[in-house]
Amino acid sequence: MTIKVLLVDDERLIRAGLAAIINAEDDLAVVGEASDGAEVPGAVSRLRPDVILMDVRMPRLDGIQATRRILDTVPEPPRIIVVTTFENDEYVYDALKAGANGFLLKRTRPEEILQAVRMVAHGDTLLFPAAIRALAASHGPAGDAPGSAPWHGRLTEREADVLRLVAKGHSNAEIAQELFVSPQTVKTHVGNVLGKLQARDRTQAVILAYETGFITPG
Amino acid sequence: MTIKVLLVDDERLIRAGLAAIINAEDDLAVVGEASDGAEVPGAVSRLRPDVILMDVRMPRLDGIQATRRILDTVPEPPRIIVVTTFENDEYVYDALKAGANGFLLKRTRPEEILQAVRMVAHGDTLLFPAAIRALAASHGPAGDAPGSAPWHGRLTEREADVLRLVAKGHSNAEIAQELFVSPQTVKTHVGNVLGKLQARDRTQAVILAYETGFITPG
DNA sequence: CGGCCCCTCCCCCTCGCGGGGGAGGGGCGC
DNA sequence: GCGCCCCTCCCCCGCGAGGGGGAGGGGCCG
């Protein structure tokens, strides 16, 4: 019994990427795509997917509203995994409250995406540790969760210092001078920051810093 | 909180023109004028401007020396934008080396001047002296005005496409796939973008994209 | 027509970045 | 005392990023 997946994302390339990953698996199949939340109810009743991978941020009807609508109207609704580019995305939190079964970051490794789809299809609620900690750290009532969280609230002071300077466009060498430490130390801190933010490089770290409000434009 | 601007130029008409442009803005205000670099330190301590627009070429104490003097003597010195008539003005580079935060050509369009003032007032990551010098050195005298603000309006469509994807955290290879061109082409575009934005690397380009409103968080 | 810009793609090269290890000292809580 | 985290610094290594060139085709415009 193959798991039927519906992709909902306004970016065609994202859909294409997910489809490629999913269709390469024997037990998974993409049965349809939608570029807008408004198309989802129709697609669901027509295609009867088991799992929906849905972007939170879309024009017209966003992922949260689409999730609510499906869960409210469809009997035996499919599992919904909310997909987002950035962790600590308010919309993700809202989507989970609306009844989504889990969420994924777009930069998540393919294997993990596949695993996530299978898990929710089998009835498991999916929440990756990193994602849970990110949410707990950012939205929890100041409670320090067991284990450190991969978000800037859980960055050490030094790491936050480094991230701020990275987000000013400074190189590792420049940061080293500014903090009066060796470039090696800066590299260590930057590496830790990237790991905690699940960013691939400093550019993505800067984007996250802006998107999460760690820093603000002007 | 309005941004307080001090004008320093030996030509009264230039000062008047700048004042007219700046005072027309709600968030900007000219708090004083000086016709000579020698008057600047006193004006700074008296008026506490956020930004100084300073001509490089002035009788008695020129803009470079005035810049040095302020940065050496004033605690929490204001941001200094060096103003010049000529592109590739040697004095400009000296001023930047002396610690000025950016420079403008007098013929720059008013909107760009305003934007530049706001940008430097916001933080120290806006104009990158090293990159400016590199640009001027490579582009040569026939190049387009190096003093003009880093304007995405000047980017070609393709370059803007590339910048948008860079600002999503994508690598050159990923962008190449997304735009169906070769990685080499992407490198060319990215290089052009960096040059036009006066950014040293893609990280700085992303910062500028956020700070100028080319892209917005959320 | 001849320039000029834009887009495309190629070569070379250097170097900073990030990943993989590890190591030592200081502070804090158990 | 011991463990744990943080900060500091070191090694090696591969790779992508940028800078320096150049080149060809298409479109637009004087």
Describe this structure in words.
Chains A, B: One of its GO terms (molecular function) is DNA binding. Chains A, B: Keywords: DNA-binding, Phosphoprotein, Transcription, Transcription regulation. Chains A, B: Residues 4-121 form the Response regulatory domain. Chains A, B: InterPro entries: CheY-like_superfamily, NreC/VraR/RcsB-like_REC, Sig_transdc_resp-reg_C-effctor, Sig_transdc_resp-reg_receiver, Tscrpt_reg_LuxR_C, WalR-like. The structure is a homodimer of 218-residue chains. Chain A has 218 residues and is α/β, with parallel strands linked by helices. The first copy, chain A, has two domains: 3-135, Rossmann fold (3-Layer(aba) Sandwich), CATH 3.40.50; 152-211, Winged helix-like DNA-binding domain superfamily/Winged helix DNA-binding domain (Arc Repressor Mutant, subunit A). In chain A, 49% of the residues lie in helices and 13% in strands. The first copy, chain A, contains ten helices and five strands. In chain A, strands 2-1-3-4-5 form a five-stranded parallel β-sheet, sandwiched between helices. The longest helix of chain A has 15 residues, at 183-197. Chains A and B meet through helix 10 of A and helix 10 of B. The structure holds a DNA duplex (30 and 30 nucleotides).
